[in-house]
Design goal:
345 residues; Peroxisomal Thiolase, Chain A, domain 1; binds acetyl coenzyme *A
Length: 345
């Protein structure tokens, strides 16, 4: 394999981008389906049968997205044995930043004391973590960075209308973080695909608060600062793009569906996952699911599910993992990764 000088690090084409450490964080407060029954016109049975969600976490008043990102990031750094000042780059994937600016990544950079890191936010809806993994992989592969932190964190409760039964039953708060560094084949990121279809802008969006429709007393009165969603359209989009994303990533890698040990899909709705599993002809046993406890946590949902599955031993060193996400934008993407390889730098 050839070697070349790029940026500050000598890179080797046999090198890959591996996860050195992973961490998760969720708020303490639980919002159950029974509690939602007293808030909107819904039933515990409807929510469970239509979504598979039993409960979700809600951030405390003083808890912002960066606070959840910080907890998850500290855990990831500790597991990876990496100190904050070793980080070259921090990416925060979120649709619920602490504020419009500065970026939540800069707020996290200061809180961690990551004095040598550049930092920026990445907005790709629920596909944010998959997008961020792909971006981080490029910085590592080019030799521009040795260590990159991704924090995918959301406080969706802050933009959820708890008078709208179509949306308030779905969303929750939480965070997942990974520290990536260089490793060796066969471990690490193998292939990735990112896609978007901006025609779906108004299927899932927050109408007000940006430059198109700045926040005003009227936008607040009209509830335009909350999530608006055409759920059944998003559902159709999700089940159609999941197989497409997987095909593209498998084709690039030369691997087959049966080689994959675990599928970690964006945790939006159990029925979306069931439909995808049926279309793909894969075993449900291979699907990592935790949406019953957290609902849809947007960008945070994949690292949260991944982190729990690593923690409880379902995902082991050497396992082949397919991560697939879809979300606001509309966006979609997938990353194929062989778990493990930390310490091979
Ligand atoms: N309780 C009781 N009834 C409800 C509720 C509720 N909480 N919500 C909707 N309904 C009603 C509707 O009003 C409708 O009644 P109607 O027939 O009298 O008009 C009926 O249930 C059916 O509504 P649908 O929207 O067709 O229900 P569906 O089976 O599609 O389920 C759901 C809705 C759960 C939202 C589903 O479409 C879904 O999960 N879609 C995907 C959403 C998603 O994943 N969004 C996030 C994407 S990721 C991101 O980027 C944030």
């Amino acid at each position: 394999m050839g070697r070349q000088e790029l940026g500050v690090i000598t890179i080797d084409q046999a090198m890959t981008s591996v996860v050195l450490g992973i961490g998760t964080a969720v708020p303490e407060k639980i919002l159950t389906n029974i509690e939602l029954e007293s808030m909107v016109d819904t039933t515990e049975e409807w929510i469970l049968s239509r979504t598979g969600i039993e409960e979700r976490r809600i951030a405390a008043c003083a808890q912002a997205t960066s606070d959840l990102a910080l907890s998850a990031s500290k855990a990831a750094l500790e597991q990876g044995g990496i100190s904050a000042d070793q980080l070259d780059l921090i990416l925060v994937a979120t649709v619920t930043p602490d504020m419009i600016f500065p970026s939540t990544a800069c707020i996290l950079q200061r809180a961690l004391g990551a004095v040598n890191a550049g930092a920026f936010d990445l907005s790709a809806g629920c596909t944010g973590f998959v997008y961020a993994l792909t971006v981080a992989e490029q910085f590592l592969a080019s030799g521009k960075c040795r260590y990159v932190l991704i924090a995918a964190a959301e406080t969706l409760s802050r933009i959820t209308n708890y008078e709208d039964r179509n949306t308030c039953i779905l969303f929750g708060d939480g965070a997942g973080a990974v520290v990536l560094g260089r490793g060796s084949k066969p471990y690490g990121i193998i292939s990735a695909y990112l896609g978007a279809d901006g025609n779906g802008e108004s299927l899932l969006y927050v109408p007000a608060g940006g430059s198109r429709l700045p926040a005003s007393p009227q936008t607040v009165a009209d509830n335009l600062h909350y999530i608006h969603m055409q759920g059944n359209e998003v559902f159709k989009f999700a089940v159609s793009v999941i197989p497409e994303c997987i095909d593209r990533v498998l084709n690039q890698s030369g691997m087959a569906m049966e080689d994959v040990d675990h599928f970690v899909f964006h945790q939006a709705n159990r029925r979306i996952l069931q439909t995808a599993v049926k279309r793909l002809g894969i075993s449900w046993e291979k699907v990592i699911v935790n949406l019953e406890r957290y609902g849809n946590v947007s960008a945070a949902s994949i690292p949260l599910a991944l982190g729990e599955a690593v923690e409880d031993g379902r995902i082991k060193e050497g396992d082949l993992i397919m991560m697939v996400a879809f979300g606001a934008g509309l966006t979609m993407g997938a990353v194929l990764m062989r778990w493990g390889g930390a310490g091979n730098d």
